[in-house]
């Protein structure tokens, strides 16, 4: 894998995927230093836009400033829901994600990734509601999902069949899963993808890395995906 250099806001001159992590825990200087030591300097860090009790710490302005000072881009995740069914629910979840992003000062053109876990019920109406609502905002629609197990694949393909705008969704695939690695040992780009046309630009290839005080998952992002982070 090509070295990711010094990070920053531009992907100019970079070849190959970018390496990053995501965490439910807030990024402190101690946590960050441990990740750099144990895994390598991440080019991006996935963090949740809002606090969900018992699940995730919400991203803070001080965290944003800290990560940006290190040249690390932020991958914004929205997880304020526990099932992904129904048009109106998809619209409502999108509005909540947009409001949270605006409150933090997330710039226009950034992708907001809805966290659709493999255990969630998901249907095409929710996907349409979420994606269409985000498309009407200053942001870009992203969905974290498992395209192999569970009902996301069939729901996404049904949504795409009904509405060609769905192809603008940036998918963050959490399969295949060769396992957590350091930056220098990251696998070649090989995510699982839906069975219909899809834009998969981010891949979570390892989960629950435990080398630091809080867990991290390890990811790769294509330059096209990385350019849509904050």
Describe this entry's structure for a reader.
This protein is α/β, with parallel strands linked by helices. It has one domain: TIM Barrel (Alpha-Beta Barrel). It has six helices and eight strands; from the N terminus they run E-H-E-H-E-H-E-H-E-H-E-E-E-H. Strands 1-2-3-4-5-6-7-8 form an eight-stranded mixed barrel. Strand 2, helix 2 (61-69) and strand 3 (73-78) form a beta-alpha-beta unit. It is globular and about 45 Å long. The chain starts with 17 loop residues before the first strand and ends with a helix. The relative contact order is 0.19. The model is unreliable at 1-11 (pLDDT under 50).
Report the strand count.
8
Overall pLDDT level: 94
* Helical coverage, percent range: 25-40%
How far apart lie the N and C ends?
Answer: 23 Å
Q: Structural class of the secondary elements?
A: alpha/beta
In the CATH hierarchy, what is the class?
A: Alpha Beta
Please tally the helical runs, counting DSSP H or I stretches of 4 or more residues. Answer: 6
Low-confidence stretches: 1-11
CATH level 3 topology: TIM Barrel
Largest sheet: 8 strands, mixed, barrel
Strand order of the largest sheet: 1-2-3-4-5-6-7-8
For the record, the count of structural domains works out to: 1
H-E string? EHEHEHEHEHEEEH
Protein name: Rv2525c-like glycoside hydrolase-like domain-containing protein
InterPro entries: GH, Rv2525c-like_Glyco_Hydro-like
Pfam family, one: Rv2525c_GlyHyd-like
Domain Rv2525c-like glycoside hydrolase-like: 44-192
